[in-house]
Amino acid sequence: MRTFGRIALAVIFVCGGLLHLVKPALYRPYMPAGLPAHDALILMSGLAEIAGGIGLLFPRTRRAAGIGLILLLVAVFPANVQMLLVYRARGVPWWGEMLLWGRLPLQAALIWWVSTLSRRADPPQSGAAVQSRPPGPAPPPSHR
Questions:
Q1: Residue numbers of the domain that contains 63
Q2: pLDDT of residue 49
Q3: How far apart are CA 52 and CA 38, in angstroms?
Q4: Quick check: is 66 in a domain?
Q5: Can you state the angle between helices 59-75 and 77-89, rounded to 10 degrees?
Q6: Domain assignment present for 95
Q7: Whole-number Å distance between alpha carbons of 115 and 8
Q8: Which end of the chain is more exposed for a tag (fewer CB within 10 A), N or C?
Q9: Other C-beta atoms within 10 Å of 75: how many?
């Protein structure tokens, strides 16, 4: 299940990153005014999403990719707030504004998801875990 989660998360980030590269104009209105070089930041964040998404798929890069994606999610949070403000100023319907408000805590959920799935090794299975034993035939059953 963790492998499926990692693949899903990688697809989300890679697709999001590609969208930054292919349609940067979608992101320009949401860039906070105080930040310089909006186009360069959009490009860099897209490349970071792609690299992080791909990095989640490989054990050797998983931890670094997770740290990078968490930092990216924190860094882009002001753009999510800016998106809410832009849509609110445009007079978005109440339900649209509620969706944008809901997106803000989604960043925390994504951070948790990345943190959970970017650990280098998966935790051992609980419950009926198979105990390792030396190769060879099984020992005879005990008759006590």
A1: 2-117
A2: 97
A3: 21
A4: yes
A5: 40
A6: yes
A7: 14
A8: C
A9: 13
Q: What is the pLDDT of residues 65-109, one digit of tens each?
A: 999 999 999 999 998 899 888 888 888 888 888 888 888 999 999
Answer yes or no: are the C-beta atoms of 107 and 69 closer than 8 Å.
no
Residue carrying structure tokens 């310089």: 36
Whole-number Å distance between alpha carbons of 128 and 73: 37
Q: What is the pLDDT of residue 124?
A: 58
Residue 51 φ then ψ, to 5°: -60, -45
pLDDT over 70 at 118, yes or no: yes
pLDDT digits (tens, 9 = 90+) for 3-56: 999 999 999 999 999 999 999 999 998 898 888 999 999 999 999 999 999 999
Q: Which residue has the tokens 């998801």?
A: 113
At residue 31's C-alpha, the angle toward residues 25 and 33, to 5°, is: 125
Q: What is the number of domains present in the chain? A: 1
140 in a structural domain: no
Q: 10 Å Cβ neighbour count for 69? A: 27
